[in-house]
Design a protein that fits this description.
This protein is mainly beta. It is built from 1 helix and 12 strands. The strands form 4 sheets. A 5-stranded mixed beta sheet has the order 4-12-11-7-8, with no helix packed on it. The protein has a 3-stranded mixed beta sheet with strand order 3-5-10, with no helix packed on it. The chain has a two-stranded antiparallel ribbon with strand order 1-2.
Length: 165
């Protein structure tokens, strides 16, 4: 008896699929707003990554690519967080040029980030919080010549001085 049921079901499915009039169709609705396109170019002889340039604006100022901020990343600074403190109290960065900040959080299970503020106290860069142990490279937009303070927003006692010159 189960063979008869299966045969009947198969016949119904085949009949429905081969019907000359479709009882239903699926056509996805067109998007209500155009989807922006992003293109990236890689310099000749180079590779994508820190030198990648995008034609669309970055989603947030803290994650802006060097090319989008007006220049190539010419310098890379290193900073490590360990034992709830930074390994350096002072950093030097190129003025008027975007740079990379390689940040290593060595505190297991502890979140840290790097925020840079100007002399007026306004944040000019805010990196994503990372829980250690973890490494990340922040792309910092060009800073005008001057003295800045960097700190961890999770542990405000973790501070240092960044000089753009």
């Amino acid at each position: 008896m189960s063979l008869a049921v299966l045969t009947t079901l198969a016949a119904l499915v085949l009949a429905a699929c081969s019907s000359s009039t479709a009882s239903w169709t699926f056509e996805p609705a067109p998007p209500s707003t155009p989807v922006p396109s992003v293109s990236a170019s890689v310099p000749a002889g180079g590779s994508a990554g820190a030198s990648e340039s995008a034609s669309a604006p970055a989603a947030s100022a803290g994650s802006e690519s060097p090319a989008a901020s007006g220049g190539q990343a010419g310098a890379t600074l290193d900073l490590t967080a360990q034992n709830i403190q930074f390994d350096k109290a002072a950093l030097d960065a190129p003025a008027g040029q975007a740079f990379a900040l390689k940040f290593s959080n060595q505190d297991a299970g502890v979140p840290h980030d790097v925020v840079i503020k100007d002399a007026s106290g306004a944040d000019v860069f805010k990196g994503e919080i990372v829980t250690g142990p973890a490494d990340t490279t922040y792309q910092v937009p060009a800073l005008q010549a001057g003295t800045y303070t960097f700190y961890c927003s999770v542990h405000p006692n973790m501070t240092g001085t960044l000089t753009a010159k």
